[in-house]
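Human
Can I borrow your eye for a moment on a structure tokenisation matter? Give me a protein, with the fold worked out from its sequence. Write it directly below this note and I will take it from there.

Assistant
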Amino acid sequence: MLFKKKKEEAAPEKKELLYRENIRVNCEPDTQEQVIRTVGQMLVDSGYVDQPYVDAMIEREQSFSTFMGNGLALPHGVEAAKKEIKASGIAVMTFPKGIDWGGNEVHVVIGIAGVGEEHLEILSVIADKMLDDSAAEKLMAGDVDTVYQILAGKE
């Protein structure tokens, strides 16, 4: 009986990977670090990660760029920050005017937190979407509903 209760308490709330509230479109350009902090804070505010994960996202970027090509950056935390992730989730910001990402122009920033190996699956799905030029264009220029439909697979 005692073990069952502990197991139930430990069961994390199942969250959607993406909520509309975690999509900000038509953002004004800002510094790379500030954008990472903003998208990271969106993950914190939604309960996907604890606050230290945001600094781990900055640390990752300092050691290895998360620029993926095709106007996309996928900031995420370093391996050591896995313990700060409570649930897998993403947060999205779009920049129609583009922002400088370590010398590359970025229009879509997707902050990622993945429990266990789920981050690899999330990266794969996003990469597939961005390989489709039409979907990539819609992500860059779309409204919240369009971005949600593309990334949440609810198209």
The two ends are 44 Å apart (CA to CA). Residues 1-11 have pLDDT under 50 and may be disordered. The chain is about 45% helix and 20% strand.
